[in-house]
Amino acid sequence: MKAGSPKRRLGDLVFSNLTRAAGLTILVALAGVGIFLLAQGAPGLTAGKEDLRGHANFLSYVAPLVFGTLLAAVLALLIAVPLALGVALSISHFAPRRLATVIGYLVDLLAAVPSVVYGLWGIGVLGPKIVPLYEWLDKHVGWLPFFAGPYSNTGRTILTASIVLALMVIPIVTAITREIFMQTPRLNEEAALALGATRWEMIRLAVLPYGRSGIVSAAMLGLGRALGETMAVALVLSASNVVTWNLISSTNPSTIAANIALTFSDATGTARNALIASGLVLFVITFVVNFAARAIVARYEPGRKK
User: Fold this and answer.
1) What residue stretches are annotated with the ABC transmembrane type-1 domain (predicted)?
2) Over the stretch 36-48, which tens digit does the pLDDT of each residue have?
3) SS3 sequence, 73-116?
4) What is the rounded end-to-end Cα distance, in angstroms, of the chain?
């Protein structure tokens, strides 16, 4: 210990070492998962047609799965983030305190619902109920490639799966943004109101800029949840492992996680290695998303020079 430096208490030393050990444990576990995926998935990268369900090579096999994974996750995020921001703002700035507390508890409870329950609800309730909407979209805006017919009579489409994913993402985004909005300096809000700003103008000028990095973080966490979701998508989606922008057709792209869940039990040999290799691709995609999120959050941190 350097001369003149304050003496560290035993409790501080124990706590700092425990936190350091916890961080190292996470790194070791993450490295172990990556090594396993790389070692077990490597043989699948050179698998033949018989192990890749008729595809010529691994790239042509995994490309539609990557497309479906990103499409479903982005659609879910486009639906979830505006709704989550609205709910978070209503809890933090609009609803009466008692009502806001109840709403907050109910939103938090949504995060505790198992994904298989969301999947069963999507296939048993949402799918059949949303078919008339698909029929309307096919009839009136079918000239758009997103809603070109024929529409699905069962409602088991990529759009239905995305709506279910959005419901699963909303609690995460809402919880984080709610806490960020409630931490907005009260003086900033009062100053905006004192200058004659309306409630919405105060939120637009004081609350949203303050919580910008938190909103990005919440959205990226929600995106990570949507990318890796398995059972809900596997139950709802009628997948065909194709690349298509049609959101209401019965011919849908599958996702990496759903494809692994549906086919892993029957796969053997190199075919199983190919599924593990696709899991490695999802692992890399998640890593890239998280690193991009960290870069965006760091850029918009308060006080950081642009």
Assistant:
1) 66-293
2) 999 988 888 888 7
3) HHHHHHHHHHHHHHHHHHHHHHCCHHHHHHHHHHHHHHCCCCHH
4) 39
